[in-house]
Every structure is written in structure tokens, then in C-alpha cells.
Amino acid sequence: MRHEYFWMSGMWMPPIVGLLIIISILYLIFGRKHYYANNDVSALEILKKRYVKGDISKEEFQEMKKELE
Known about the structure:
By secondary structure, the protein is mainly α. The chain has helices at 3-9, 13-37, 43-53, 58-68.
């Protein structure tokens, strides 16, 4: 196969598209972990939100708060 034919025929596109797909998949898998790692929400803040929403009772809140301290 001649070098000019390779570039003019468009045969170079499938490997480039495949590489872009692989890079996109790797970003979706590993790139999002960084976002969650920087989420500095403490366990006490989560507990307070659950109490305010009514997911847990006052007694449960106080017990869990003692365990966190």
C-alpha cells in the first residue's frame, strides 16, 4: 500500500476514532473520582442533614453523634 493512498482513503480515521473512544471511557471511569475525592463533607454534616430531613429520630441522631466524637 502506498503512503499517499493511506491518507487519502480515510483509512486513518478508524484508529483515531477508536483511540478517542478509549480515552473518553478512561476519563469517565477515572476522571470522576477526583471530583468525589475533593468533596469535603464530614460525617457529622451528613448526620445533621439526615436529622433535618427526618430520616432519623432525635435519639438516633444523639447516639450516632456520640459515636462520631
